[in-house]
Specification:
Blueprint (H helix, E strand, L loop, with lengths): L15 H14 L5 H18 L3 H11 L2 H13 L3 H20 L33 H5 L10 H17 L1
Length: 170
Amino acid sequence: MCELPLEPPFVECSTEKTQMEMNLFTWSTLQVSDTDKKFKETAIKTFALACRNNLDERAFEFIETLSNPQLITLSLKYASKLDKKRLVEKLMDLATKIADETDDLGVKELPAVEQTVMKPVYRKLSLNSTSKKTPRSRVEKEQAPNTPKIVHPEEMVSILRISKVTCLNS
């Protein structure tokens, strides 16, 4: 008897990118319960590899092909961390498009079961003896955590005045 390795037909089997793509292909076709976590982890690694190599269009097409809302959210966070503004805009458009499609289909997500997790308590270090807590504005509370900050026209005028005064003083 002889054992035959069954691998997906990819061209460059030795590169890191191809290895991740092979894993994605294998895990997407398997119907095993534990593969979902590995699939998402490998997908984000592949997205990160494309971002690090300044292949933003490839990264976007990859996430668009997968069309997984959780992966889109994670990729948005990663792209914003790397300050890839154009990629973040495209991913935001994709996220709204997918959200609209799921609303049109009448698909509703089931609420996730909350697990009680003990979080460690960290104290914030401050240089002042009295720490002032500034209240958040209503706009920040209403915004989703991954959306860019919306600047109101009054705030924009005051920002422009401040920057104009600073430029004139320089």
